[in-house]
């Protein structure tokens, strides 16, 4: 584990393709398609900027604690092209096993969520959308589960 202390260090590590985590590992720092550095909660779709807004007294204040590069550094890299929507399939993922179990757990939760929505919603269009999403996530899960 490599600790990171400053905003430039964190940005440089992300730009180099390393996974950067904070707050015990439950959050990952990403760079989105428009160049913003965001802290993403791994278990949900919650995002916040890496630091306070430029030009304010909070510009140099990090929005997380304990930033680090886990052992293996760049073994897994996820890029979100549109942080506003899960259903846009906006992920590019390269993985060689580092966070496989955590990813599989997150995929299982997404499958359960969309299956539940499909079973409880009344609008046919929404039901169909959630069923398709659950099936797509299940395909990804099955592919990753069988990878060595």
Give the tags.
3 helices, two-stranded antiparallel sheet, 8 strands, alpha+beta, 2 domains, four-stranded antiparallel beta sheet
Explain this structure to me?
By secondary structure, the protein is of the alpha+beta class. The protein folds into two domains: 1-95, no CATH class; 99-148. It has three helices and eight strands, in the order βαβββββββαα. The strands form three sheets. A four-stranded antiparallel β-sheet has the order 2-3-4-5, covered by helices on one side. Strands 1-6 form a two-stranded antiparallel ribbon. A hairpin with a 5-residue loop joins strand 3 (27-31) and strand 4 (37-41). Helix 2 packs antiparallel against helix 3 (124-146). The radius of gyration is 17 Å and the shape is elongated.
Topology of this structure?
Elements: E1 2-4, H1 7-15, E2 20-22, E3 27-31, E4 37-41, E5 47-49, E6 67-69, E7 76-80, E8 91-95, H2 100-120, H3 124-146
Antiparallel strand pairs: 1-6, 2-3, 3-4, 4-5, 7-8
Helix pairs in contact: 2-3
Give the gist of this structure.
With 148 residues, the protein is an alpha+beta fold. Helix content is 36%, strand content 22%.
Share in helix: 25-40%
Separation, N- and C-terminal Cα atoms: 24 Å
- Number of separate domains: 2
The share of residues in extended strands comes to: 15-25%
Q: H/E series, N to C?
A: EHEEEEEEEHH
């Amino acid at each position: 584990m490599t600790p990171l202390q400053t905003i430039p260090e964190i940005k440089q590590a992300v730009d180099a393709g390393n996974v950067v985590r904070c707050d015990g590992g439950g959050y990952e720092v990403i760079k989105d398609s428009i160049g913003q550095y965001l802290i993403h909660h791994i278990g949900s779709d919650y995002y916040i900027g890496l630091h306070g807004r430029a030009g304010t007294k909070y510009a140099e204040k990090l929005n997380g604690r304990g930033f680090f590069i886990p052992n293996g550094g760049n073994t897994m890299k996820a890029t979100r092209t549109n942080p506003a929507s899960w259903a846009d399939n906006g992920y590019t993922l390269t993985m060689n096993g580092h966070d496989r179990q955590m990813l599989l757990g997150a995929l299982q939760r997404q499958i359960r969520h969309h299956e539940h929505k499909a079973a409880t919603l009344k609008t046919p269009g929404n039901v169909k959308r959630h069923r398709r999403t659950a099936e797509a996530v299940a395909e990804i899960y099955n592919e990753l589960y069988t990878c060595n």
